Amino acid sequence: MSKFTTGELAKRAHVSVRTLQYYDKRGLLQPNEVSEGGRRLYSPADLKRLKLILLLKGMNLSLAAIQEILDSDQASHVLALLLDQQEQRLRDEQTANAAKLKTVVQVRAGLADFAAVPIKSIEDMELIMANKKGLRRIHVNMVVWGLVMDAIEIAALVYSVVVGNWWVFGAAMVVAVLFATLTVRYYFKAVDYICLACSNQFRPRFKQAFLAGHTPKTRKLTCPVCGQTNYCVEVLGKLKQG
To answer: Mean pLDDT for the chain?
Structure first.
């Protein structure tokens, strides 16, 4: 059978020798035997008991309570209950941490989109996240409306081909152009832009915004405050600056 000296046991359990000496003094973990040279020797069973002690200590139990539990006739039953509670607590923490991690990832992604927005408080952070959700909602609405108009145009085209009446398709195209114009105007009235040079939030004229080069999240505009032309960050019109 393997035997461990105090130093070897401490190394295996990742604790200090002083900790083992203290447990020995308290009678919580005494060596299996003492060699002729006076060296304390521990068995594999002692190592298992030590790991159990450390586990219970990690559950914020006092050494007195741990000793009482381990020495009790109902030790197995009590340990089972404690471990069940510990498992549930860890699962709850895991769920909470997963939710926190998701929030961190979302906030980090939001920061990349709104690098020009000054953040002075947690309220500013919450405002940025709400802003991002609002922009996403606007983009989704525009995609949905576009798909509806595409469906109407295709239906009108098929009808005109089958019936031979191209007035229906012509009327559908006129409606589509009007609808597209209204959709674009709605879009530019719902969003503002933030200048990366001076952090000024502004709403450009429709013609300037419509003709400007753009990416999915920015538009190349001239700031009315500093006069610089840059790719400005798109934000909701209601986003307030601190």
So the answer is: 80
